Fold this sequence. Notes:
By secondary structure, the protein is an alpha+beta fold. It has a domain at 1-50. It is 39% helix and 37% strand. The chain is built from 3 helices and 4 strands; from the N terminus they run βαββααβ. It has helices spanning 13-33, 61-69, 71-80, and strands at 2-10, 37-45, 48-58, 84-92. α1 (13-33) packs antiparallel against α3. The radius of gyration is 14 Å and the shape is globular. It comes from Herbidospora solisilvae. Residues 2-92 form the ABM domain. It holds the Pfam family ABM.
Amino acid sequence: MFGLVVRFTCKDEATAEAFDQLIGETIEGIKAHEPGTLVYTVHKVEGEPLLRIFYELYRDRAAFDFHEEQEHTKRFLGARDDLLSDVEVDWLDLQVGKVTTP
């Protein structure tokens, strides 16, 4: 498996609202077209109204590369920069865990 955690900090409350809308549109494309994307979750952080944390888990590197090539992902990547003041990415190397698949 291949994964990452991304911390997005929005510029202000108005951009956070626009970012959340962009995320919603992007998630629909992921659900419909990316069978290799195992987990793609977005979290708000209590007490940090401008922060969003993404947790992404892919079947393998090829599934991540496929995700990056999708039109909905390209749209997200192109539109997000105007809404954000900071982006931090941590690439994950799974050591141990429990994964349930349908």
